[in-house]
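Handover notes (outgoing to incoming on-call)

Open items:
1. N-acetyl-alpha-D-glucosaminyl L-malate synthase BshA: sequence verified, structure written out, both below. Nothing else pending on this one.
2. Nothing else urgent.
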Amino acid sequence: MKIGIVCYPTFGGSGVVATELGLELSKRGHEIHFITYNQPVRLDLLSHNVHYHEVTVPEYPLFHYQPYELALSSKLVDMVKLHKIEILHVHYAIPHAYAAYMAKKMLQEEGIYVPIVTTLHGTDITLVGSHPFYKPAVTFSINKSDAVTAVSQSLKDDTLRLFDIKKDIHVVPNFIDLEKYKTHGMPDCQRGMMAKENEKIITHISNLRPVKRVQDVISVFYNIQKELPARLMFIGEGPEKEKIEQQCRDLGIANKVVFFGKSNEIDKILCFSDLFLLPSQTESFGLAALEAMASGVPVISSNSGGIPEVNIHGVSGFLSNVGDVVDMTKNALEVLRDDNLLKTFKDNARKEALKFDLHNIVPKYEAIYMDTLSKC
Ligand code: GMT
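N-acetyl-alpha-D-glucosaminyl L-malate synthase BshA structure tokens:
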């Protein structure tokens, strides 16, 4: 199939999933066209069947807001015609599903029919999409998609609760390429450079937005390091960074916390991590938790949204109510204090991650494409 993939090209989970999906589909013989405003961060290798088409939005002083949707739908029309793209898969409803629908209508005027698959990722539904400013347009573009998927049962339930949806929503969970996370326990894992032999390594990866509750990460770590030697690795950039740097200084733990910034090599950091913290306010899935589990890192998380579908309480880690840093600390210490238990949780985390192996999940998208095309 010739598939157009629209996504955010940034470090956000939806862009990562879209990129990994496109790359795997290309390995399975499909021709993939990424259409977005920058080359996706995890797309380092373009090949004969992986293409990237940049959406350019020229600046014009009249516009207070540059019209990205318009530029995107025009680019979609051009690329579908030029490359004979058969199906468009848009990741994150806002504004991608809306722009794709406009492209589809423009193409129909020329007798070209291209169906749209929309994948809902989380904040496009929970935090942003359900805002009254966007809700009518988001509802419309979901209902006008030819197929709709959500990355967890929880997100499907949220979508049906928050919007008036007439379409069937398929749950297709996020996935992981387990091959990439084989560095766990390998000699090139640089643990010795990051911590002393007796120190436990705690890790958090996110876009450091308020929804991630990164202050809770610091609070839990602060409590842990009072009880046992530990270091905290922070990966990601975002609006809360300055606040948490200050929080570390105020608590006197700045020398125990390493900020890595954005990274494309999280497997190299996860390979020496003992515990992953994800205390999010809301999380449709928690791709970062799955990436940690794939590296054999147990997860201490909140129980919000789709996280319980990924991190299994008492097996791959523990879940607590949002904001309950006392319970999170208790759970973290329980795992970290007992090396045998830590090893059991590490093994379990890796086993649970196997359920999300891309070889099991990507065929589900292929089946949806085939089914959607057969209905055209
Ligand atoms: O808001 C974010 O954290 C980024 C957002 C995105 O743009 O990808 O993440 C959402 O999609 C990911 C991939 O499906 C999920 O793993 C995240 O749980 C989800 N984030 C939220 O629901 C907050």
